[in-house]
Amino acid sequence: MEQKSRSLISAGTLVLLAVLFIALTILSSVFLKGMRLDLTENSLYTLSDGTRDILQNMDEPVTLYLYFSEDVSRDLPQFRSYARWAGEMLEDFADRSGGKLTLRRINPEPFSPQEDQAAQYGLQAVPVGNAGETLYFGLVGTNSLDGQQVMPFLQPDKEKFLEYDLARMVSSLSHPEQKKVGLISSLDMTPRYDPAVPRIPENWVIYQQLDQLFDLEEIPAGTETLPDDLDLLILVHPKDISSNMLYQIDQYVLKGGHLLAFMDPLAEADRGGDPNDPTARLNAGGSSTLGPLLKAWGVGFDTSMVIGDRAYALLVSPGAGQTPIRHLGVLSVRSDGMNATDVASADLEVVNFSSTGWLAPLEGSKLTFEPLVSSSDSAAPIEASRLRFLVNPQDLEKDFHPTGDKYALAARITGQAGSAFEKAPEGFSQEDFIKNSGSAGIQVVLFGDTDLLTDRLWVQKQNFLGQTVVNSFADNGTLVVNIADQMLGSPDLIGIRARASTSRPFERVEALRLAAEAQFRDTEERLQSELDETERKLTEMQSVRQDGELTVLNTEQQETLQRFLDRKLEIRSELRQVQHDLTRDIETLGMRLKFINIVLVPLLIIFAALLFGHYRRKRRAGGDK
User: 160, 91, 105: which is closest to 136 by C-alpha?
Assistant: First the structure.
């Protein structure tokens, strides 16, 4: 009877525990919804502060449609893993939006209405397999004002930019008003009509892009008034800017306005003023700076020097039929010179500069100076006057000695800043004078070159059936538009950086593979060297014989050939041994890791549990006494 009672108690306890478990699961899904603990090394499942601010300050409700071909991707683990991670990030977006963002998952099965919708939205269909199946993996965003944005295909190799791209989409859809960009330029980005030229001059391509993407307002270079409703101000070659305009720019930045400025120690696109003025050429290629504003922002800029760089020097043609030579003053900065953590520059391949200056943080400045594009360590300053009337680019090599330092060609300046003026100039209200920036600080991006905006450094134009077709061979325009788009999207977007990859490579295995490959290459090169030497000896021996005997090998040649063949077999055996050693080392490492994960760690946990249990029993026994 007693045993039966114990069985009933045990069964009742199990039922009670099961009920408690189900209840806790239900309650946790309700009260702990949205809560998570991210223990990954790079916080892969934690949204940045900027993204959370964007989601909490949405003005317009947004619906995101995630299209992913579940069935078609069954044999594509890379896409499935990335889709799962992207979906979890989108769910986190929805959870933190306070109900303003809705996520809908759609599986566009073949020949279904959902597949037709995906095609209508312009999502990219990627063929997979041999059965003609297509994979959809794209995102569509809409708002209540019929606004729509599309990501045609979410590529796994772009995963570090996913959070920024999603936040940018949500920000633009939830704040659909068009942003206003003011442009002050002393260069002819919109060339004037010249009766002497038979064709109508075209605007610079970068001007056309900015005009298409934003509400672009061109402000005359000599103007004394800055519009009040600007979301972004762009300055291009501010060489003759007045003191009153400098003051207005100073106050605009301190109030939280965004500034993108292009200065230059030698602006090659500067024609010196009126082309009909005979003295214009003497003023051509002038320099520009923001003077006192740079000092207030903790930035140094020398208008008498340009940067030369052997590693990034671009090949230029000195003339028809002549061999191209490297021009130290014309730089083609590759991806290793881009800031890999800033989404505006991280994904670019090449940006071209010409006679560019450099930016440097002033000593003692408390502002954040973040280079976006930098020279290589094979660079050094060159006097700008040497490039003004340069005939032979090779002359720049004289007395050129790289310093080993990297120079910032473009930089982002953020943080708390003070005014460059002690008080408001005459004609401005002293009561409205702002001496220091607000808590958000300033947002300024500076370039040491204006020539990167010119068409010749990044686009090629062709006439096709009467239409001008533009093809870009560098990322100059992409960089400028990225920065403008980033600064206009939201102040929070500027703080969002590229995320780390979810891929966790086996670094030890990779090191073993690289070492083995290096040894493999050394052995292969030794074999090739021996092969070349043997063939040279055979050629020498054949050349001293008579023509009629060329088809017959003498004893010495046969022995030499046999030695080569024997050595060749030996080296092939060495190559196989290297590959075998590589496989053996990797397998040994794998067995060691398996032992640690499968045997050692569980044993350590069991041992720790036994120690803890022994400690508790000992304490309980001590308490009973």
Answer: 105
Residue of 384, 340, 339, 325 whose CA lies nearest to 358: 384
Domain-embedded: residue 501: no
DSSP string of 82-149? Answer: HHHHHHHHHHHHHHHTTTSEEEEEE---TTSHHHHHHHHHT--EEEETTTTEEEEEEEEEEETTS-EE
Structure tokens at 240: 């003759």
Residue 412: the pLDDT is: 97
Same domain, 160 and 254: no
Count, residues in the chain: 625
Q: Locate 379 and state its tokens.
A: 């660079």
- Asked if residues 287 and 303 have their Cβ atoms less than 8 Å apart, the reply is yes
**380: pLDDT confidence band, cut at 50, 70 and 90?**
very high
Domain count within the chain: 4
Question: Can you read off the two tokens belonging to residue 353?
Answer: 């500069």
User: Do 589 and 610 share a domain, yes or no?
Assistant: yes
Query: Token digits for 257?
Result: 């306005």
Tokens 């109900």 correspond to 99
- 529, containing H or E segment: helix 507-543
- Are 13 and 62 within 8 A, CB to CB? no
Reading the block at residue 610, the tokens are 């036994």
**Rounded to whole angstroms, how far apart are CA atoms 519 and 524?**
9
Classify residue 68 as exposed, middle or buried by CB count within 10 Å of its CB (0-12, 13-18, 19+): buried
Q: Is the pLDDT of residue 31 over 80?
A: no
Q: Residue 264 is part of a domain; what is its CATH number? A: 3.40.50.880
Q: Residues 100, 125: one domain?
A: yes
Between β-strands 258-262 and 442-447, what pairing exists: parallel, antiparallel or unpaired? parallel
In a domain, 502, yes or no: no
Q: What ranges in 148-242 are assigned the alpha helix state H?
A: 162-174, 205-213
C-alpha to C-alpha distance for 68 and 105, rounded to whole angstroms: 8
* Mean local confidence (pLDDT), 435-457: 94
Maximum Cα–Cα distance for the chain, whole Å?
A: 120
Query: Is there a contact between 178 and 215 (Cβ–Cβ < 8 Å)?
Result: yes
**Domain match, 2 and 133 both:** no
Question: Residue 498: is its pLDDT beyond 70?
Answer: no
pLDDT tens per residue, range 564-620 = 667 666 766 666 666 566 566 666 766 776 677 777 777 788 888 788 777 777 777
Whether residues 187 and 169 fall in one domain:
no
* Nearest in space to 477 (alpha carbons), one of 580, 352, 342: 352
8 Å CB contact between 489 and 166: no
**Among 434, 440, 431, which Cα is nearest to 420's?**
434
Q: How many angstroms separate the Cα of 296 from the Cα of each of 196, 235, 304, 421, 522? A: 46, 17, 21, 9, 56
9 and 54: one domain? no
Residues 538, 606 share a domain: yes
234: burial class by Cβ within 10 Å (0-12, 13-18, 19+)?
buried
Distance CA 298, CA 306 (A): 20
Residues 247 and 333 in one domain: yes
Structural domain contains residue 580: yes
Best CA proximity match to 494, nearest among 436, 434, 440: 440
* Domain range for 521: 507-544+552-624
Would you call 141 exposed, middle or buried from its count of C-beta atoms within 10 A (0-12, 13-18, 19+)? buried
Say if strands 313-316 and 325-334 run parallel, antiparallel, or are unpaired. antiparallel
Do the domain assignments include residue 353?
Answer: yes
